[in-house]
Amino acid sequence: MRPGPDLVLGAAYVVLGELLFASMGVAIRLVATEIPTEVVVFFRNLFSVLLLIPWLLPRAGAGLVTRVPGLHLLRAIAGLGAMYCFFHAIAHIPLAEAMLLKLTTPLFIPVIALFWLRERITPAIALAAALGFAGVLLVLRPGFSGISVQAAIGLLGGGFAAVALVTVRRMADTEPPARIVFYFAALATLVSAVPLAWVWRTPSPPALGWLVAIALLATLGQVCLTRGLALAPASQVGPFGYFAVIFGAAYGWLLWQEPLAWGTLVGSLLVLASAVILTSPTRVAQPLTPPTLDAG
User: Fold this and answer.
1) Whose CA is closest to 38, among 23, 26, 30, 28?
2) What distance, in Å, lies between the first and last C-alpha atoms of the chain?
3) What stretches of the chain show up as alpha helix (H) in DSSP?
4) What pLDDT sits at residue 143?
5) Model confidence over 170-220: pLDDT tens digits?
6) Which SS3 state, helix, strand or coil, does residue 164 take?
7) Closest C-alpha among 7, 11, 5, 9 to residue 292
8) Which of 17, 90, 154, 200 could form an S-S bond across to 221 if both were Cys, CB 3.0 to 4.6 Å?
9) How far apart are CA 87 and CA 80, in angstroms?
10) Among candidate residues 68, 101, 16, the one with its CA nearest the CA of residue 295
């Protein structure tokens, strides 16, 4: 059966979204030589809020009243943790590996959902998660020389992102999407401003331009991913998110002469196979998100 136009267009949006995220990774690495990660994260959130204001304002007012402020705060802190870890990984490890670690979130979700939401883990889900983590280990230590601290931080970011997404699921029954987006944008900007008290460094004009580009690329990438998911099921278009590794490898090779190791190739295939299983509609519980979805 030939794929329908909605699936083709949805996949195209997902691939474009991941190209934008990989381009954001390039901007992060370029600005990281001058600006600390904490400052980069703050400006990413601040400029994203400014870009979202035209969409958020019509939805303000009584629709922002919430009965679960603690969950909104937890989601913001977990999402910020994912950003800090991901941005740090981009600055310190090969770009293809950093992009892969961003996509490990589905591997953590079943475990978190088991202990928090009491969702059952089937043998198929357990096997898929084990397969995915084996792929991650193959990428991070192909020579069995040990996982670097920077890579471990990037993997921790996948765990933080999973907490953020499970929190969104916990709120889904009472909180509309616009309210969730508003509170994350507002709280993430406020909380990420706290570290500026001891790490602030005034960006130069070129660095400020890269910071604006990071927020713009992140916002446009999220819009493309959301559009792609609206056109076709996550189980069908989600795996296209692994183009992020291809784009990251291409950028890393072209700009920094980073070689693509065999472990990255084989490990990425294992993680991709795991993600296909974990986002399949045949799961006992419907997937929270495809592996492409950013925690922020």
Assistant:
1) 28
2) 36
3) 5-32, 37-56, 69-92, 95-102, 105-116, 123-140, 149-171, 177-193, 196-199, 205-231, 234-237, 243-256, 262-278
4) 53
5) 887 788 877 888 888 889 999 999 999 999 999 999 999 999 999 999 889
6) helix
7) 11
8) 17
9) 10
10) 101
